[in-house]
Amino acid sequence: MNVEERVELARYTTLGTGGPASVFARPRTIGEVEELLRLAAERGLDVATVGLGSNLLVADRGVDALVLKLDGAVAAVTVDGELLRAGGGAANAVVLHRARDAGLGGFEFACAIPGTIGGGVWMNGGAYGGDFAGVLERVLVATADGSGWLTPSELGLSYRHSELRHGQVVLRAELRLRPRLPEEIKAEVRELNRRRKEAQPTNRRTFGSVFKNPEHELSAGRMLEACGLKGYRSGGAQISPKHANFIENADAATTADALALMAEARRRANEQFGVSLQHEVEFLGTLELPEL
Ligand SMILES: Cc1cc2nc3c(=O)[nH]c(=O)nc-3n(C[C@H](O)[C@H](O)[C@H](O)COP(=O)(O)OP(=O)(O)OC[C@H]3O[C@@H](n4cnc5c(N)ncnc54)[C@H](O)[C@@H]3O)c2cc1C
What we know:
The chain is of the alpha+beta class. The protein has 7 helices and 18 strands. It has helices spanning 30-43, 92-101, 117-123, 152-155, 182-199, 220-226, 255-273, and strands spanning 3-8, 20-25, 47-50, 56-58, 63-69, 77-80, 83-87, 104-105, 126-127, 130-131, 136-143, 146-150, 169-176, 178-179, 233-234, 237-239, 247-249, 282-284. The strands form 6 sheets. A 5-stranded antiparallel β-sheet has the order 6-7-13-11-12. A 4-stranded mixed β-sheet has the order 1-2-5-3, with helices on one face. A hairpin with a 2-residue loop joins strand 11 and strand 12. The longest helix is centred in the C-terminal third of the chain and has 19 residues, at 255-273. Flavin-adenine dinucleotide is lined by residues 14, 48-56, 70, 88, 112-116, 118-120, 122-123, 125-127, 164, 169-170, 202, 206-208, 282. Flavin-adenine dinucleotide (FAD) binds at residues 14, 48-56, 70, 88, 112-116, 118-120, 122-123, 125-127, 164, 169-170, 202, 206-208, 282.
């Protein structure tokens, strides 16, 4: 198994920012993940897993931790009747493809979520009325003390949230799907992608929604648009001119640039609407937003 020191994480995130992981490994089996977790525990090293980095903001100074990226058998997909088994490192796009070929529907909502199964479980990713909680049967999670299956309720899934913590690795998920004609799946995916392209900056480097939608008549995007933030820049990062709840890497942005935009967006939303926006993007390394 390949274990390296000081690996730049910028190339493992869709925004393309962030510093190095002190230790980085690409385990290919459950046994290798368990061994790495045990070794990290012995050495007192924190552990974090990255998927496709599509919801991740990594500190420019990097992360003092063992960072895992799942590969091989822990990123594989198999179908057994109406049950689809996917490794934590499997890309949603691959899972959707396998489900469609097997004539299984229910995962179409994930067509425009450019992440992995592990990241989807961690975030309870969702779109267009569907989410991971709605299809998950159970999830195999590894810790330094061993691996075990958790049900959706044990994972504490709610809107873009689970109770998972770094050091817990999603090894595998079982998805309960239902028979559906591949042609119908294709047509729905085409339509969802069309809607997505119309509304969001899909051809830019971003990490998806910056903030969760608040309990308010306006979504986070509409609120930030009303604050006049579309196109607002800090260094190489800008708030998307197309959708104000996205931050784009416009020109060699750093994580500090993105964080400065987030701080300004929260300040203005609080000033104008009295709302305290909560970030949806996950932080890795030491990153903090100023108090409101
Ligand atoms: C253009 C764009 C559109 C998006 N649209 C949506 C959308 O509609 N809905 C939505 O919900 N999200 C959306 N996202 C955000 C993102 O794609 C999802 O949150 C996705 O589920 C993240 O998966 P990932 O594999 O990239 O996780 P990462 O970004 O790599 O990681 C996210 C978190 O999950 C943890 N993690 C990842 N894998 C594992 C694992 N195997 N075990 C334990 N923890 C793990 C990480 O440690 C981190 O805390 C979008 C992003 C982009 C760039």
